[in-house]
C-alpha cells in the first residue's frame, strides 16, 4: 500500500492573491481524496469548492507520510510551501 502527502490549493484564493493551502496525508488515490474534499462535509476544506492538488509525495508507510505532513505544516510559511510546490513543477 502506498501513502501520500499532498497539498491542495484553493483556486479562489489564487484570484485574490491569497495562499490558502490544505496539507494532508492519505492512503487513497489522490483524485478520490480530492473528490472527498470537494464534497459536502464539515471541516476546513468545506469552505471552498475549488480545491486542486498542486503537490504530492509518495511514502511506503503511514508513519513516514504523517511525519512529512507534520514537517510541512510546521513551516507555517506559505512562501516556503510555495517553493516546495514550484520545485516539483520542473
Report on this structure.
This protein has helices at residues 11-15, 30-38, 62-75, 78-88; strands at 3-10, 21-26, 51-59. The protein is globular and about 30 Å long. The termini are far apart. It is of the alpha+beta class and 90 residues long. The chain has one domain (3-88): GIY-YIG endonuclease, CATH 3.40.1440. 43% of the residues lie in helices and 26% in strands. Strands 2-1-3 form a three-stranded antiparallel sheet, with helices on both faces.
Sheet/helix structural class: alpha+beta
Overall 3D shape: globular
Q: Report Rg.
A: 13 Å
- Number of helical segments with 4 or more residues: 4
Beta-strand residue fraction: 25-35%
Q: What is the level-2 CATH architecture name?
A: 3-Layer(aba) Sandwich
Low-confidence stretches: none
Mean pLDDT across all amino acids: 86
Largest sheet: 3 strands, antiparallel
Tell me how many strands there are.
Answer: 3
CATH class division: Alpha Beta
Reading the helices and strands in chain order gives EHEHEHH
Number of domains: 1
Protein name: GIY-YIG nuclease family protein
Organism: Chryseobacterium indicum
Transmembrane segments: 6-23
Pfam families: GIY-YIG
Amino acid at each position: 500500500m502506498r501513502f501520500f502527502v499532498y497539498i491542495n490549493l484553493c483556486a479562489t484564493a489564487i484570484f485574490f492573491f491569497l495562499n490558502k493551502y490544505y496539507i494532508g496525508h492519505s492512503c487513497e488515490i489522490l483524485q478520490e481524496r480530492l473528490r472527498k474534499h470537494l464534497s459536502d462535509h464539515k471541516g476546513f476544506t468545506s469552505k471552498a469548492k475549488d480545491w486542486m492538488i498542486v503537490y504530492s509525495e509518495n511514502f511506503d508507510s503511514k508513519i513516514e507520510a504523517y511525519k512529512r505532513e507534520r514537517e510541512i505544516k510546521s513551516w507555517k510559511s506559505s512562501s516556503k510551501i510555495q517553493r516546495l510546490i514550484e520545485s516539483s513543477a520542473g
